[in-house]
Amino acid sequence: MELQKELKEAAMNHGWDYFGVADITKYHDYLASFYGDFIRQYPHAVSLAIRLADGVVDPVEFQEQDKILSFHNYCYYAVDYLQNTGTVKLASLIEKQGWKAFPVPASYGVYRSRLAGLISHKLVARAAGIGWIGKSGLLITPEGGPRVRLATILTDAPLETGQPMESQCGNCHLCIDACPAHALHGRVFDEKEPDELRLDPFKCKQFIEDRKKEWGISIERCVCGMCVAVCPFGKKILDKDNL
User: Fold this and answer.
1) Residue-number span of the structural domain to which 152 is assigned
2) Which helix H or strand E contains 50, and what residues bound it?
3) Where are the alpha helices (DSSP H) in the chain?
């Protein structure tokens, strides 16, 4: 498929490390329940992910203010900016071939009551076969764990789709134990269950709001990142004893 080859090549050249395509038609009813019927015009979604630098993620485990703020700036300004400019370019490639394309910005919420964006990037990435959704509620890749940032392009282009990846978390509960907000419930992902059975995003948000007050800062986000930093799949040497 010439378009798919062109898109993947453009994605890799732009800086992405992962490229996949998901068939999202099976999720249309679920997505339409809050996104509306607009989602039904897009049977496919391109999933893209950038592997985060270990040098930025590793210090997060110690939760020092300067390292946390550096992690925040790296993720939300540097990496997300790179992804958002890239999805615009790839969407343009798709539309020039006569197909629809909707680039979904990385990490920008539009549903405050759900603390969610226009599309679940991790749901798309799992359906595309890039990784699985771990007990942390994050997308986990076999090579980089949760140390990735995700972006999505909705499209009706006839692209070859991947297959969902099953969880490889096993008995590991490091992210659950490390969560300072106690927001993780330890349940394995089940697409038939609502997200709130696995995690409480409002506890996470409240912890972040309290931290901003404690540190006297007024940025929109003040990430914790512990679930990203402690996951053994993200470590250079996989700790199999925890799986």
Assistant:
1) 2-242
2) strand 44-51
3) 2-14, 28-35, 54-57, 65-73, 80-96, 121-127, 174-178, 201-215, 226-230
Distance between alpha carbon 167 and the CA centroid of its chain, in Å?
15
- What one-character-per-residue DSSP string does 144-182 give? TBT-EEEEEEEE-S-PPP--PPPP--TT--HHHHH-TT-
Number of domains the chain contains: 1
Q: Quick check: 126 and 137 in contact, CB under 8 A?
A: no
Q: pLDDT, tens digit, for every residue of 146-193?
A: 999 999 999 999 999 999 998 999 999 999 999 999 999 988 877 777
Q: 47-80: per-residue pLDDT in tens?
A: 999 999 999 999 999 999 999 999 999 998 999 9
Distance between CA atoms of 31 and 42, rounded to whole angstroms? Answer: 11
Q: Which residue has the tokens 């378009």?
A: 3
